[in-house]
Amino acid sequence: MSEQNIPVIDIKSLYGMDRQEIARTASLIGDACRGIGFFYIKGHGLSLDDIEALFATSRDFFALAEDVKKQVEISPSTGNRGYVPMRGEALDPSKPADLKEAFNIGLELAADDPELVTGARFRALNLWPDQPGFRETMLDYFETALDIGRRLHMAFATELGLDADHFEDKLDRPLATLRLLHYPPQRGVVEDGQMGAGAHTDYGCVTLLLTDEVGGLEVRTRTGDWIKAPYIPGAFVCNIGDCLMRWTNDTYVSTPHRVVSPAGRERYSIAFFLDPNPDAIVECLPTCSGPGNPARYDPIRGDDYLESRLNPTYKASGLA
């Protein structure tokens, strides 16, 4: 596989019981994770109509008046949930704030959940806008995306020589975030280095991204070239994040990427970031070290790792 190309992988075997086919799919995914760090997936069971309904709901939210959206604005007390206004974060802290707005949704918890009662980090009630159908649509998709993410982790474990269910008890109450993104048309003066989303690697284990046809996502190859990730109808763009890179002792390597929104065009995307359970210990997997290849990172809890990555992003734009 040329690392200048992002492979397209059919994952329908991950929904079956044929171990040989599962291993074949896992091998393709592993090759991508060891290579460019990005891959498309199809065969995930989500229809084009399902995807369009998600985007329609997202577009309706971002079309609301600013004062309405700010009623559910993110803050240090909302557990990384809620509305992120324009220029509300800088994914590349060395550059001006990003030209996008977003809405974050986390794992849905009951008001009397023990983690909420004790004030655990990154645990909070989701904030919901006054928009008919929004909550139901997004929670249904959250569960779908989480299921796909778990199946991908089954493939990771298989490819890495672990039991297929190795990650299951580390992803049953994950610090996952469903993120709706809107990149308005860029008009007027744009600061030097400012773009839709600055160059960055993702924090967690794996990202599942749905995009519209506008494009704009760019991926940096291992040789340092930036290539476009073209829109493929019905396919997710997936990439591994820094947490999985750490877990695999750099066997899988995360890849910098950015969003360069086409001038004068509006862009929407929907991302699902799968981070592990807060108490999951992220440490070198037993098959990812050996003589001459010692563990490169100290063990760390999932919530400690996430906090270490989120703080610089929001401090750069004054929200932390």
TrEMBL record:
Catalysed reaction, written as an equation: L-arginine + 2-oxoglutarate + O2 = guanidine + L-glutamate 5-semialdehyde + succinate + CO2; 2-oxoglutarate + O2 + 2 H(+) = ethene + 3 CO2 + H2O
EC number: 1.13.12.19, 1.14.20.7
Fe2OG dioxygenase domain segment(s): 170-276
Record keyword Iron present: yes
Cofactor or coenzyme needed: Fe(2+)
Domain of life the protein comes from: Bacteria
Broad class of enzyme this protein falls into: oxidoreductase
Entry keyword set: Ethylene biosynthesis, Iron, Metal-binding, Oxidoreductase
InterPro entries in UniProt: DIOX_N, IPNS-like_FE2OG_OXY, IPNS-like_sf, Iron_ascorbate_oxido_reductase, Oxoglu/Fe-dep_dioxygenase_dom
Keyword Flavoprotein: no
Pathway annotation: Alkene biosynthesis; ethylene biosynthesis via 2-oxoglutarate
Alphabetical list of SUPFAM superfamilies matching this protein: Clavaminate synthase-like (SSF51197)
Entry similarity comment: Belongs to the iron/ascorbate-dependent oxidoreductase family.
Name listed for the protein in its UniProt record: 2-oxoglutarate-dependent ethylene/succinate-forming enzyme
Organism, as annotated: Hoeflea alexandrii
Taxonomic lineage from the root: Bacteria, Pseudomonadati, Pseudomonadota, Alphaproteobacteria, Hyphomicrobiales
